[in-house]
């Protein structure tokens, strides 16, 4: 995938998230890229500077200086998160968020990348489907053959587990199905163990198409 194609994917993703037109979404991402370059950031940290300051008492540049100046930052993600909790009294969830943000800012972690180096693609939609029937298909070999034609799948969770975990041709997908009433359900997919950011983009498109087909009863 070229950088131009990757940027177009980011524009479309922002359009889907914010409802902005292409030109507006494109302009915002260009401005963010310019600001990131000026600040010496490799990529965006995830949360805005305003949010991180409100929740933790410091902005991203301040946290970056603090972590960079702590010799233990070379010990990795877990050590940094623990240090933030113990030495700076940061709540556990926000300690994780700061650590991930710092890793993205400094290029140690790409957006969507996990601590083990793999990537995760997430997708969710509320669709018209029988939630119990969908779950039964997901845990059944023949049902999965219908849901994922020409794809090898393996059930990785117990049939009674709350969420269904499937081994796929690539990575592992955890699928949650929550009833919404009136014959609709929210289907949330977390597709882990992907090898690169390009694979994340591919699988996000796959799951978007899969959810649309499910909604239109084409599966």
3D architecture notes:
- The chain has helices at residues 3-18, 22-39, 49-56, 60-69, 77-88, 92-105, 131-139, 141-147, 197-215; strands spanning 119-128, 154-155, 164-167, 172-181, 184-194.
- A hairpin with a 4-residue loop joins strand 3 and strand 4 (172-181).
- It is globular, with a radius of gyration of 20 Å.
- The protein has 219 residues and is α+β, with helices and mostly antiparallel strands.
- A five-stranded antiparallel beta sheet has the order 1-5-4-3-2.
Q: Using the alpha-carbon principal axes, give the shape.
A: globular
Which residues sit in consecutive blocks of at least 5 with pLDDT less than 50? none
Task: Give the C-alpha Rg.
Answer: 20 Å
Helix/strand-derived category reads: alpha+beta
* Strand percent estimate: 15-25%
Report the average pLDDT across residues: 87
Q: Helicity range of the residues?
A: 40-55%
Straight-line distance between termini: 29 Å
Number of helices: 9
Based on DSSP secondary structure assignment, what is the total number of beta strands? Answer: 5
- What composes the largest sheet? 5 strands, antiparallel
- Output the strand order for the largest sheet: 1-5-4-3-2
| Helix-strand string | HHHHHHEHHEEEEH
